[in-house]
## 1
Amino acid sequence: MTSVLPNAGSPLLSVVCPSYDESEVIGLFYSELSSVLQILEGLRYEIVFVEDGSSDGTLEKLNEVAKGDPRVRVFSLSRNFGHQVALSAGLDLARGDAVLMMDCDLQHPPSLIPQMVELWGQGYDVVSTVRTASRDASWLKRATSRAFYWAINRLSDTEVVAGAADYCLLSRRAVESLRRMPERHRFLRGMVSWIGFNRTFLPFEAPARAAGASKYSWTRMVALGLDAVFSFSTVPLKLATRIGLGVSAAGIVYLGYILVSFFLLGDLVEGWASILSAVLILGGVQLAFIGLIGEYLARVFEEGKRRPLYLLRQTPPADP
Ligand code: UDP
Ligand code: MG
């Protein structure tokens, strides 16, 4: 493989692109990406496509692209494993001295790559990008995204920068650090913050998708948000203690009030309505916290099974 590449001694950049049902946009993406990568001087590159169990002929399109360019390596997962796992597979499969992760719908503009590579050359291990605006995001998506970042930064010790995209460049040691994190429920943006190292940010405006539709439905986004909270914070688990203590304190105050009004004022407080509401509130709080503990327990269970994160059904012919 190395022999077909020009400047065999120079550093290798891997561009990792997860692709799921992207047949409409692959051709355009490949040509735009290649035209940017070709102008990078003193750098060899490879493009690692991780096809994520598509059903619209994406794999065939990718294989066609790979036939015409030895720098393109196509891997295919045995089924749809999801964006975050596809990215993680790409990190395992990339061979570069630096690895760049980007979506292949052109919402992550390839024109930023030269600047990202330059920052890597200056010694940054992580060059992240931050979306300042997104052309096809509705106000609801923007508002929920803002609320999410607010919540995760309150709940977790790891800072997750608002608007930070999965579009980033990682040095080899940053990649190796991420590969040592074997968790099943992955929120890569948080994981990238967690590893630390020298990090810098580049702002960009995300254009609308070049073609096709977003694969992130509301349910998938909520699942990713919950993964972020449950993987990066134990605050919800501890909330039960605080809320429990708060409710008990309120109960004691209320009991004091009842006793005072009974003994001093001779009033017998009629209580069935207040008892019912207390029962309902406490019942609800208890059920909610049992569910919450269940969320963490389910994650422990899934980690305990130690299944592989993904399975491959196709690797490039040149690879073992
Ligand atoms: N993707 C993937 N597997 C999935 C869903 C998405 O590999 O199950 C890829 C998709 O092909 C794209 C990237 O992840 O390259 C981001 O997905 P999308 O553009 O749908 O997300 P959005 O930009 O709308 O958040
Ligand atoms: Mg997109």
## 2
Amino acid sequence: MLIVQKYGGSSLGSADHVKNVARKIQRTVEQGHQVVVVVSAMGDNTDDLLELATKLSVNPSARELDQLLSTGETQSSALMAMTLEHFGVPAKSFSGRQAGIITSYDYGKARIEQVDPRELRNALAVGITPVVAGYQGVTRSGDVATLGRGGSDLTAIAIANALGADRCEIYSDVAGVYTADPRIIPAASPLGMLNYDEMLELSSQGAQVLQTQAVEFARGQQVPIYARSTFTDEPGTIIREGKKESVEKPPVTAIALNRHIAKVGLIGVPDAPGVAALLFQELGESGINVELIIQALSHNQLNDIAFTIEEDDVEAAEPIVQRCLEKLGGNALSIDTQVAKVSAIGSGMLGRPGVAARVFKALANGHINIQMIGTSEIKISCIIDRDDAERAMRLIHEEFHLGQSQEMIED
Ligand code: ASP
Ligand code: MG
């Protein structure tokens, strides 16, 4: 088989970690498989470089940042290649450019436009294991661009797709995807399989297992993903298109929590055409992502509009919203950063009434007030007080019986 194996930063935190991963790769090669390795930067290297940059420049240029941040992955790839060679496995490191990855010009969040895997194929043909630096590619003018945080996942999936690999395995410090973050809900159970839509909702609602753009790419190209732990032999989770299931799926597959959001409210803006257009156009043009939006029934020709944004965007959003409020002649602005979003996700809720009511009942039984509600076909999200976040997650997890049975935890 031709296998792409991607190893995340926490699997490469030290020289010993690199050796451990190299042994794992060696075992796969010795089983007779061809392997293409994709590596992230070691440990917290990317964060450290970012911190260093902000110490030296208030507003570093996006091009220079990418030039800098990409070096973390370049280092890992060379270090991994020499470790493999030391173990007797012929190997060669590749930067994004050397691996044929062409990206868009959006520094810091570039999209992969094309992969020309010729050089990787040439290496494989002569028995060399390529070790590709993740998270990076080059623009058509040859500048390095990075693929957004967690972007090595995208590198691995794009390369697996370009090579027509038999599998794409993504290794991290967790054994795949769980019904909830096991650090918050110790009873959470591992999920054997998820479809792309569920994984996409989970990733974008705050589960940190796979990069959202990577899941989107995998869905578009139908690349199955095997998410596994570097440190255990657990089977992990397969993410692929859902087959027609003979047994009925449970309504909820997993619960996600995002504690890093803020709630913005405009109170008493005119109930007239163009109000929402003005507000959300201005936010959009500044690159601020808006998620849940609520505008309820109007009263006395006035409306209240509320929406959520990422907490990191509050500073940029506040002056924009303030300006809109003044332009529109609204009454007041409120920004609440003490909120969290808890989401129940599952394609089993499609066409099944009553699932939302069960989520709300679970929260009501815990005396947790719901401030905003948002839904998609396969997701129910509630905005609640941040202090209640973890309890809310547990209550919904219990309501849908997602935990492992007690005996399973004990043995
Ligand atoms: N090193 C980059 C990050 O920390 C990319 C990655 O790990 O996939 O975001
Ligand atoms: Mg990382």
